[in-house]
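To assess whether the prediction recovers the assembly geometry, we first specified each molecular entity separately, as shown.
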Amino acid sequence: MTASATRLYPLPPGEMPVGSIYGDLKVPPRGVQHPSRPYVMLNMVSSVDGKAAMEGKSSALGSDVDRTVMRTLRSKADAVMVGAGTLRAEKLSLGLEESSVPQPLAVIATSTADLPLENLIKSASQELLVVTAQDAPAEIGHQLAQFSERASVLRVSKTRSGAPDLLEALESLAADHGVQTLLVEGGPSVNHALISSTLADELFLTLAPMLLAGASRDALNILDGPSLRAINMDLLSLHAAANELFLRYALHY
Amino acid sequence: MTASATRLYPLPPGEMPVGSIYGDLKVPPRGVQHPSRPYVMLNMVSSVDGKAAMEGKSSALGSDVDRTVMRTLRSKADAVMVGAGTLRAEKLSLGLEESSVPQPLAVIATSTADLPLENLIKSASQELLVVTAQDAPAEIGHQLAQFSERASVLRVSKTRSGAPDLLEALESLAADHGVQTLLVEGGPSVNHALISSTLADELFLTLAPMLLAGASRDALNILDGPSLRAINMDLLSLHAAANELFLRYALHY
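The predicted structure of the complete assembly is given in tokenized form:
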């Protein structure tokens, strides 16, 4: 593991332990809190050619430094969300390693009844919320009850594509679960749905120093969905650790 | 146009006019000259999610600073190559703006007889070489002769996919045209072919501060082709101008 990182932007540059990347992050930034939904940050790792996974797994792309950065970002969020497809692809946690600190609410968004809970690594103290459409089968509730006492289902309207309405879900996260900051760890469909609904405020992107190529059905891009009118972004900060870059952008709609 | 850029890496950072980005580039680097082919640099512009074009045009992605950087890179190369698909997409030049300096050799690689020369902006003094397969129709030669006196055809073997063999083309560029440094400006298929044949030495990537998404048939990635085993890269330098980043990587095979 690289012992140190360098903040390259904003200037002046500074060396720091990798655990300090985003360590002083204050979100939401002053003056941009939304009245009825959380501040939404996307966090993804990508190859330099925009691929979000290697052999189906996002974890194969990032380094140990990337995993440290991911945990730092989780520590800044009230809730951490992924789409069910991301959970289906590999075992993952949506929490913090330290058991002594409050865990963020784990949120899984799914448009199907297929919820691979066997892949979710969850501490007993972490709450889990599954976001799905109104007409999703009742089995989801039973499956969840078997999985954990601290798990519940949030049913929201369906969009035309059949996916759960994410604005409605975000409003419920804010109103009913006190979530002011939401970290979204993919996958590409959830990212695209949030951006195309103008609901994503920031993108934290780890640029892994590799090229992968591949057809998009096998090798997903970080955004999976139809062309967007170009969404412009401001570069907020940039850190480097060895050849890996950590980019923070604010999205403008 | 942004008047100045900042080198962020390697440290220390430094402000400079945008025309100085890569102004002191020395290629090939000492000790890495290939015995029988040119040193190959890819130059591409990409959205942060890896898309190489907006509405089919790569030029819509980059800023004026990107175009300045592109010209600086051309001034360091003996030849500038694109695939015919890139020329088909939009009008472009493969030369320098100043008429007083020697122009790089313009090279177009094509696996079909469809050569949209009407899109090529070429000064009278610039030589043009079209690389194609041995069995390409003789019309290409006639079409070229009509287009310019300073144009010729280089016929090379075909790969299994029917594309011209790029190693053979590079060896001929070095042996018969004195090309020691080749700048390749895409498109995604040519980039992929060069990387998958371990022929690309460096990648210069302009990261445009935008998200585009889109299916890969409409919105090409910077690499178009089957999955590669992960090609690792070293970050050589990093410049910023406003929110646009200019990344220089060395590829390792």
